[in-house]
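seq as requested:
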Amino acid sequence: GGGSAGGGSAGGGSAGGGSAGGGSAGGGSAGGGSAGGGSAGGGSAGGGTATGETCATAQDLILNGSSLNFQVNTTAAVNDSEGTCNKSAGGPELVFHLAVPQAKDVTITAARSAGAASNPVLYVRTAPCDTGVELGCSDNQSSSSATETVKLLNRSGDLYIFVETYGAASGLVDVSVTVGPPTLPPANDECGTAIPVSFTGTHATLTGDTTLATNSNVGTDTSPSCSSTAISSGRDVFYRVTLAANQGVQAVVTPTGASPAYDPVLAVRAPGQCSSGLSANELVCDSPTSATPALVRFVAPTAGDYFLVVDGFSSTAGPFQLDVDVFNVPANDSCAGAIPLTFTGNVATASGDLNNAFNSSTSGTSPTCSQTAEQDGADVVYRFTLGATQDVRVEVIPAPGSALVPAVYLRAFGNCANGLAANELACSTGGGSAVLTRSDLPAGEYALWVDDGYGNGGGAFTVNVITSAAPAAPANDVCAAAQGLTFSSGTVLVTGTTRSATNGNAASSIPTCSSGARSQGKDVSYSFSMPAGGPQTVSWVVMPTSSTHPVLYAEGACGAGPQLGCNAGSFAFSDTIGGATLTMTLDGGTAAFLHVDEDNAAEGSFTLFGRVGPPPNDSCASPRAIQLSTPSVDNSVIDSNALATDDYSKTSAPAYACTSSASNTGRDLVYSFTAPATARYVVTVTGIGSLDAVLAFLGTTCSPTTCTKAVDTAYTGEAETLTFDGVQGQTYYFVVDAYTSTSVGGFRLTVR
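struct tokens:
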């Protein structure tokens, strides 16, 4: 309504100080409500009407000079809005509008009026009032009488001030608004004023603060790519570092201060792209999302000025220290600089170092032999050429005292930078040196990568590459030259190899149990005839001596079928080596062919064992003797529990005395061993396929009642091991049992 003058009042306003809402005072305007002093909102004791209830009726604040003090009464107000610091308050509030045409520092306080019971809350937004960005929110939850303060630096434009009282504690609140000269942002707040990084030697340390910085991003930007909140609300500053081509850089931003609350974000932009908000112009980015250091490492692809963008996660800002180190990257850090290996005879040797190298495989699945190398390992690359098909052996030997645990892998050079596992020809890692072997590597050019398999930070090493001519194919590589097998006392045992063999099944429908054997497996052939008589059962076991997965299959006519049986083995968990078993019942006198194939492109040597009929060592009545194996002589026994019976278990008569397990109900075989010396011996049995082996030690008497220990700790297809102290000349007995009656297959038994 009306105005007021002198001592008069209009519209319920009070004279002198006046009230905003019904009238005006001290130069305030009436109607929509303005406050130039006095009380606002519910009015003073004289009784005014509540304006500023919503954003639509926000009261204009007019400063007389640089400050304004007025009183707010929330008694008649309702709860229309909430700040981020008081979402559970649910209290009434009034809204005020302050126009700041030029950049100023603005300080706003809200305090409980003398004698009042109000608990003030204060928050400020930009335009538009209802949905603008909240610039500050204050609610001291530990003290209802505390003064709430919001301080805004270097602000201009329309500000909307919300004065609220917590919960039901409405009433009078004293409000103060003060403006002053703006606190300017840091000198390097913009790209054009980026601070140059000056090095002492190879290191530079700088300090900075993003508290007063502004956000250089716009809504469509995609850099910093590692933090969407840095794009939307982060305050950023800029540094410029001049680099030579292929120079390496490590930059670290560390929050400083007594209790840092700043969560740094650090991005690097290419020369000439400082102000570009596109991630395509960004080299690297890191956001730890906590008040911990942000770290980036990169290599400059070209010479020029690169830009370090120090930003903030989730609106955080604060002081920091920036440390920048430059270093020389190994020349062969990438495929473009791969170092050629020169052979003297059949050997090439080179020295290298992974220190200061980068990880080239972050976006691929190779190297497959080391996930750490793939994710974090520094790597370098060499190249070599073969003029003919060769066997290749690579040794990577860490320098003395180095913590390097190397991984080494091989690709065709055309796929040098392609990190897909399908392009990897071989991969190996080791606890000391890494040794990689690849047979029958065709003529061509190859990329040899040396990586940090454990992420230990790199180190120096020597790499040796040795080539040799591949051996000739085995004599029984084809059906027409199948090696004959002859049973002696019902058994046959031979050794063989698929090394340098060919795939005889490329156009065949067998073996039906392995598509890998048909498409790429190397195979060798044997022939055998069943002893005369009626139908008999023959059991075959193949056990490789290298990391292969053999396949066994038999057919009536060589290369023409019909298939009589097929088994591709069963490999448990992370097995890299496994055997196969095949049991068939054939008529006496049947002539057949047996093939040892491979489930994949691997190749290697093996032992093949066959037996017609049940095993003779099915019980203690006729144990089978086994000899000691040494590092130079392998006297392991290859056997199968097919056609064996369950003679010994916890419930048999007599029963095992050494186990409480109700299992161990499978078929069992008995073995004897005479100690050649007084020593401690280790017995190991490794099941093949579905055989879950159990190993029982009977001592010097072959009876389950004298059993002193039994082991069954591993899974199907895995090894069981026990130890015992033997006396020279004494004979000891043990049983290879099976976990259940359906656990049937071949195994290898070794005493060392």
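Residues 1-34, 41-49, 572-576 have pLDDT under 50 and may be disordered.
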